[in-house]
Every structure is written in C-alpha cells, then in structure tokens.
Write a structure and sequence with these properties.
Length: about 100
C-alpha cells in the first residue's frame, strides 16, 4: 500500500469502502488485509498527516470543513460507545459479588 496512491484514489472527493480500496491496491479482501489497511490508515493520519476520514459510509479525504466535521462526528460516536462500554464494565465488575450469590426463590 502506498500513501500517494491512496490520496489519488480519494482526491476526487469519493468515499470508498474498505473493499474498494483493497481491490484498487490489488489486495484480497480478508480480515488480515482489513487489519493492515486500518493500520496503514492510522499511519497515514498520525505520521504522514494525511487528513483521512473514516465513517460507516467509507473512507475519504477531509478536503473541507464539512468532511472534517463528518469524520470528527463519527470519531466522537466511537469514543462515546467505548466510554459507555467501559462504564458498564466497571459497574459489572463492582457488582460481580452480587452475581455470584444464588438467587432466592
């Protein structure tokens, strides 16, 4: 995978699915290649500072304020989901003793 090639794929403002990007790179779509693409996108954003947005709609370049806000809203949704899951896990852990006790009938 190549960052410049990815930017060319997305430069027209297209939103592409993971499968479409893998196909354009000539990579078979499977769980390993999807994990590698996620790591590649993470590196492109963090190391190479390419403004790539990822949502359930697909992957796109953030080329204006609207697309940037779209990407940020999705990240906030993911963050909230993980925060809620963490809170529920902490509560479940605190209540674990209650779960071990047999219920009285």
């Amino acid at each position: 995978m190549n960052i410049e090639r990815l930017k060319l794929m997305l430069e027209d403002g297209d939103t592409l699915s993971v499968g479409q990007i893998l196909d354009r790179f000539g990579i078979q779509d499977n769980s390993i290649s999807r994990r590698r693409l996620r790591a590649f996108l993470d590196d492109a954003i963090k190391v190479h500072q390419v403004p790539i947005g990822v949502t359930t709609d697909g992957i796109f370049l953030c080329h204006d304020e609207r697309t940037m806000q779209k990407a940020l809203r999705y990240l906030e949704t993911v963050e909230n989901s993980y925060r809620n899951r963490r809170n529920a896990l902490e509560i479940a852990f605190e209540n674990r003793e209650e779960m071990r006790q047999p219920t009285k009938v």
